[in-house]
Amino acid sequence: MGAGIPASVRELDEKDPLREFRARFALPPGVIYLDGNSLGALPVRTASRLAEVIAKEWGQGLIRSWNDHDWVGAARRVGDKIAPLIGADAGEVVVADSTSVNLFKLLIAAAAARPRRKIILSEAGNFPTDLYVAQGIAALLPGLSLRAVGTDGIWDAIGEDVAVVLLTHVHYKTGHKHDMARITRRAHESGALVIWDLSHSIGAVEIDLGAAGADLAVGCGYKYLNGGPGAPAFVYVARRLQKDLQSPITGWFGHAAPFDFAKTYQPASDISQFLSGTPSVLGLMALEVGVDLLAAAPREALFQKSRALCSLFIELIDSSCPGLEVVTSRDPKARGSHVSLRHKDGYPIVQALIAQGVIGDFRAPDIMRFGFAPLYLSYAEVFQAAAALRDVLATRKWDDDRFRKRARVT
Amino acid sequence: MGAGIPASVRELDEKDPLREFRARFALPPGVIYLDGNSLGALPVRTASRLAEVIAKEWGQGLIRSWNDHDWVGAARRVGDKIAPLIGADAGEVVVADSTSVNLFKLLIAAAAARPRRKIILSEAGNFPTDLYVAQGIAALLPGLSLRAVGTDGIWDAIGEDVAVVLLTHVHYKTGHKHDMARITRRAHESGALVIWDLSHSIGAVEIDLGAAGADLAVGCGYKYLNGGPGAPAFVYVARRLQKDLQSPITGWFGHAAPFDFAKTYQPASDISQFLSGTPSVLGLMALEVGVDLLAAAPREALFQKSRALCSLFIELIDSSCPGLEVVTSRDPKARGSHVSLRHKDGYPIVQALIAQGVIGDFRAPDIMRFGFAPLYLSYAEVFQAAAALRDVLATRKWDDDRFRKRARVT
Questions:
Q1: DSSP string covering B316-364, please?
Q2: pLDDT at position A398, please?
Q3: Residue A249: CB partners within 8 Å, gap ≥ 6?
Q4: Cβ within 8 Å, pair B59-A26
């Protein structure tokens, strides 16, 4: 597939300080994978690490491995490794449950910390689970309600009735990135807390929760963290809030001393309070491999490459696919690490691309998404993907019944 | 270790209809594993199955495997495989989250279905996370409270103010088994719902939720189901209740059509409603291997062997360790699949046994637990374990400082 790649693009790859990371992923031949924003690629080391956890730690060590292989400390250990990726300190992040369950915990804890305020403010069009979880809480706790406003209306909607602002840092559909520091400041001036959902930004986009004065965050482990399908998620609670906020799901791993088997729940005084049930050991160990890989990459190079891959793709689409609307911002500071294009036949177009080995995805009604994971993608692949898209459009390859059949998961 | 095993014990193993299952587990040499009630042993097939899921399904299939390898259907598929183990029908069980999180969902859903009743009734000394989760809900939802009474007081405490009775079928510490059908009948007569925590019984003890007219249940995947450390848990909701009960954690996988990305939460009309976030695929696939193994075993033989292993152990303890109090019932119908012995020096005694390769565990203040997983244990191992315990006691091998040092996880 290397033919036809311009020298300027080849040069970008040659000078890429991250180019050695590609070999640490087990990507299939013949595939250009632009869906790492949905499910990250498999690190080479994950297979051997999980084989070791299964055969040696579980199979041979059995119950003893909770101590001998520190399974009991894994949720905190991996949390501490995630912390520097998001500008948090050690002890402010723990790996637990799913993003949805963590959102549930933090929304309730945040609303309880602002008892006179009755609004959960979010963005209409936020990732569905964020809105769904908030809707469920509003149905559960009388008086609380969800107010979802358009992106442009968020600023003005942060009023004195708002207990907590819930925003996804990078929008799953448009790729729009919120100004975390500015919105956090505005919310604090009005007396509200903010929860940032980092699912679509962690591992690809600069995040500095500390500098932004952020309160709370959640995020998923299976996108740019490359933790595997359904990887456990994480919770961030700023240290200054840890004593005041209480998780509503008071499972035994959130207890101050789980193995005392005491009768009465006594929450841990630190971030461990946001654990609930027994953590998924296999999931944690797979996630740790992905996080270790990211931690080994120079961070500024990672974020710079994410911006450059997206810019190159937009530039190529602008010049070669003039019929496509680029939904994502052209300003690298205002976007995440995926680019969304609008086309009324987006679904079959994405399927036709997948049939050629260029994997992106589709979000109804008309958005094609292409994610650019800086750790394992090359500039040459971006060029080839844009060329494939141009070809699919020019030859109407997508206009075929086999590409219109909807799969269960899109 | 085979010397000295009586012919009568050898004969039990020779006639054991489950004897071929032992080879399907990767147990370490030199170990007699009597802690399968805490963490089940590793099935041989788990390593190759997970290697396949990782390398082929995740690594090569990438995002496509949600459809191509039916990741999206796995939570329901494994739930349907669990159903016959507990007397449930297909469509009544789904695998999701942890036991603690599932208890949280069901307790809130059950209390909401009995709005004029304000009591969650449970057993003092129930497994801590069950009590902790109920305590957290009582703190969250004004008016609700937890009433925890002694085992003998449960029957009389089921009054007209009780919304939901929460009991663990087999007690984690004593091994006592509740009469599920009898208590369920009593609760229904009084108008309450019942949640059964099956964590310490599923896979070793006969459970017939259907025959008992049971309402709701949860259970863990990492004990007798052999799903691995922190395996996902399951939820059972009787079909007749599925339309009326609502999970409070309304994550996107509980939506009627998750991949429509609709704005408003619309719960699935079936058991899928009790899913929340993206399920743990690695955890599900490991659990499925364990469940498949159990499903392949003749169930009556499984339960009969569990009773017989426990009876043999109690008999041997009675005759060779007269100083030990057998806490667990001598009536096989009134106990689960582990036997608890009381000794004030239980902790160092258990550590001394572990040092000899006989792995049980300890629960404060004075309980030694020995679990008998019928799928992979032999009668000869029960004999050897009892002999090792007799020896540790007779020679006071446990009376050594190295056995007194408390580990983080006991």
A1: HHHHH-TTSEE-S-SSGGGB-SEEEEE-TTHHHHHHHHHHTTEE-EEET
A2: 95
A3: A101, A104, A105, A276, B100, B101, B104, B133, B136
A4: yes
* Interface residue B63 vs chain A (CB under 8 A): yes
Cα-based angle B212, B213, B218 (whole degrees, multiple of 5): 85
pLDDT band for position B244 (cuts 50, 70, 90): very high
Contact with chain A for residue B154, Cβ under 8 A = no
User: Residues 344..403 of A with a Cβ closer than 8 Å to B: which?
Assistant: 354, 359, 361, 363-364
Interface residue of B44, B95, B276 to substitute, partner A, most A CBs within 10 Å:
B276
Using 50 as the pLDDT threshold, list the residues of chain A that sit under it: 1
Listed in sequence order, the residues at least 6 apart from B177 whose beta carbon sits closer than 8 Å to its beta carbon are B169, B170, B171, B201, B205, B329, B333, B334, B335, B336
Q: What is the pTM of this model?
A: 0.98
Q: How many CA atoms lie within 13 A of A318 on its CB side?
A: 12
| Token code pair at residue A129 | 């689970």
Could you tell me the domains of chain B?
Answer: 7-30+298-403 (3.90.1150.10), 48-296 (3.40.640.10)
Gyration radius (Cα) of chain A, Å: 22
For residue B113, what pLDDT is reported? 98
pLDDT (0 to 100) of residue B2: 55
**pLDDT tens digits, residue range B331-353?**
999 999 999 999 999 999 999 99
Question: Which residue's entry shows tokens 């986009």?
Answer: A205
The predicted pLDDT at position A2 comes to 55
pLDDT at B410 over 90: no
Mean pLDDT of the region B185-207: 98
Complex ipTM value: 0.97
